[in-house]
Amino acid sequence: MRKLTHPFGKHSADAAGGPAREIAGAALGLAFIGLLGWTNLRAGRGLNFEFLYLLSCCGVGWFAGVRSALASAAFSTVCLYLAETQKPGVGGVQWLIAWNSGVRLLAFAGIAWLAGEAGRLTRELERTVRLRTSRLEDEIEEHKATARLLNEALELFKQLAENIADVFWVTDPAKQHMEYVSPAFEGVWGEACQTLYASPVAWLEGVHPEDRARVKEAASTRQLTGAYDEEYRVVRPDGSLRWVRDRAFPVTNKAGVVYRIVGIAADVTERKRDEHLVQMQRNLAVALSSTSDLSFALDRLLEVGLELQGIDCGGVYLAELESGELRLAAHRGLTEPFLARVSCYKADALEVRLVKGGRVFYAREDQIPRSLEVLWGSQGLRALAVAPVRHQGALLGLLILASWHEGEMPPKTRVGIELLASQVSGAIARIRAEQASRQSEAHLRATVNSAPIALLAADAQGTITVQDGQALAAMGVKPGEHLRRPVTEVYQDHPVVLDNVRRALAGEEFSSVVELNATVFDCRYTPLRDAQGKPGGFVAVATDVTERFRLQREILEISDREQARIGQDVHDGLCQQLIGLAFNANSLEQALFAQQRPEAATAHKISTLLDEAITESRRVCRGLYPIRLRTQGLVPALEELAANTCERYPMHCRCQAEARELHCDMATATHLYRIAQEALNNALKHSGARTITIGVHDLGDCLELEVSDDGKGIAVKPGPGSGMGLHIMEYRARLIGGTFHFNRRPDGTTVSCRIPRVTQ
Description:
This protein has 760 residues and is α+β, with helices and mostly antiparallel strands. Helix content is 51%, strand content 21%. It is built from 21 helices and 21 strands. The strands form 4 sheets. The protein has a 6-stranded antiparallel sheet. Strands 2-1-5-4-3 form a 5-stranded antiparallel sheet, with helices on both faces. A hairpin with a 6-residue loop joins strand 6 (313-319) and strand 7. Helix 2 (50-64) packs antiparallel against helix 3, helix 8 runs antiparallel to helix 9 (294-305) and helix 9 packs antiparallel against helix 12 (411-437). The radius of gyration is 46 Å and the shape is elongated. Mean pLDDT is 76; it is low at 1-16 and 371-375.
C-alpha cells in the first residue's frame, strides 16, 4: 500500500516550531547584546562594538523574527547610549549622544527588520518548496498506482481475449483502421492477424461468396447503430467451412459521437451443426412418415446422410428375409465400374458379421479390412461407417456411409449416422407393412403387429372404426378396445390428440407428434373423402419415436445448458471483474476531482464505459441464463424479457398474463420462454413494429403463449422452406406436446403455442 501524506503536514510542523524558535533566538540574541554592553562599559575608550551590535540584531532578526529584531535593536541602542554617557568629558554634548543614539536606533531597526523579513521569507520559501515537493511526490505515487491499475486492466483484457475462442476486435470508424484483433481470429479465419492491420476489410475475403454481399452491406450500414448482428459462413484457406456470429457495439463520447466500434465474433459452427442435425432429422421424419414408397424413402435417407459433415458417398442395403442376403437398394456417390461387385452381400460376408451384433462399426483408412469384397475397403476411402438398420432385434438392412477426405468420422457425424439408422428402421418397417397390406388382410395385421406403430381410423362423426397395432400396448390399450366409441370420448384427457382429430375431420392432411404415457408417437393423419370429395373421416398411423425424440430433446437441452453455463460464467467471472475495475476507476475519479486535476475527465469516461460494459454484460447474462425463470416462474421471466426489450429498443413491449403463477413444470416453462424469446427476436428483426405484446392465456383445457406485433411481419409459414427460428419454435412446441401456430395479419403478426394444461 502506498503511504498517504497529508499535504499540509510538514507546513503545520514548521508553524508549530516557529514560536519556540523565536523565543530561543530572541533570548540568545538579547543575552549576547547584554554581554556586549557589559564588555563595552568595562572596556572604556578605544574599542568600537557597533558592528557586533549590528551583527547581533541581524542574527536575532534572521532566526527570531521582526519583533525580536526590533527589540534587540532597541536594546543595542540603549547599551551604546549608556556606554557613551559613561565616558569622561561628554557632559556638554548630551544632545549629540542622543542624536547619534536616535540615528543608530533607526539604522539598527531598519537593518534588523530587513534581516527578520529575509529570514521569514527564506523559511516560507523552504516550507513552500517542501509542500510542493510533497505534493509532487504524492501525485507521482498516484500516477504510478493508476498506471499499475491500467496495466493490470490491459493485461486482464489481453489474457481474456487470448484465452477464449471468440474473436474480439476494435476499430476506429473515423480512420477506417483496425486497432486490435484477438489471436482467436487465426483459429477461425485461418489467416494471420496482421492481414487485418494491413487492410481492415481483409476479413471479408474469407466470407462465403453467397454471404459476402449481405455481410458487407450490414457492416457498412449497421455497425455504427449497434444493430449489427450477423451470422455467416467463413471459408478457411484449407477449404473447411466455419459458421460465425459477428456482433458490433459502438462506443460513443459525451457528445454522442461514435469514436470506437468494439465487436465479438463467436464460432457457432457446432451450434449450426446441431441445428442442422435437428433439422435433418425433422425433415427426414416428415419425408419418411409421409411416403409409402420405399425407394423414395431410401433415396431421401442417403440425401440426408450426404449432408452430414465429411460424408461423400454411401449405400443402403435391405435384407432378404428368406436368404439373409443384403442387397443394395439405393446408393449415392458411387461409380459404375464397381456397382456390380457391391450389389449384394452374402449372409456370411464380413460386413454382415460386423453388424449382426447391432453395433455401428467405424474405421479409419488403416483400419478398413482389405479383405472386404467391395469398394469400401479397396478404393482409397479414408473413413468408413457401417450402421445396422434393426427393428425389434431383426436386421432389416445396412447403412454404409464413407468419406474420401476425412481421416476420421467427426463426433457429430457419428451421432447423425446412428440417428439416421434408428430413424429409418421404423420407416422401413412401416412402408413394408403398407406394401404387404395391399396383398392381403392377414399380411396387414401381421405387419402391423410386428412394427412399433398403431392404426386408428374414424368415420365422419369421429367414431372409431379401426384400432390396431403393436404400439397400442405402449398406450395401455388393446387392439379394438375402443371400437364404435367417439374419439373425443376415448382421448378426452389428451387435448393434443383432440385438436389433431378436429383438424383431420376437417379434411386436413398433416403430421403431428403426440406424447402418451411417456411414449412419443409420430402420427400421420390422412383424411378420407366421399364421392363428392367432402371429408368422410380419417386414418391415423402412429409410429413410436420415443428414442429419437429422447436424443433430439437431449441435443436441445445440451444447447440450453451450455447457454446457461456461459451466462453464469460471464455473470460470476467477467461481471465481477468489471465491477472491481469500476470501483477502482470511481475512486481514482474522486481523487483527481478533489485535486482539480485535468485527468479527472478521463477517469470519469473510464468509469462510464465500465458501467455501460457491466450493464451490457448483465443483459447478455439474462438472455443466456434467465435466472428469474427458475426462481420466480414463467410470467415474471416474460415480464423481465419485455422490460429489457423496452430498455434496449425504441419500442413498447409489454407482458399480459391473467395470473402470475402458472401450473407447469420447469421444462415446459423453459421451452415456452425460449419460444417467446425467439418470436420476440424475429419481431425485432423483421416486423418493424412499434408495439409487441407477450400474452399468457388460460383457455381452460390448455395454456396459450402468444406473441403479437403491429408490424409488417415476415411472409413465411412453418415448413421445409421457412427460417430456422420458426422450425425451432415449432419443434419446442412439439417437445412439450403443444401445437405451434403462425399467423400473418394485415395489421401485424401473431405467433402462438398451445399446450395441454397440466395440474400440479
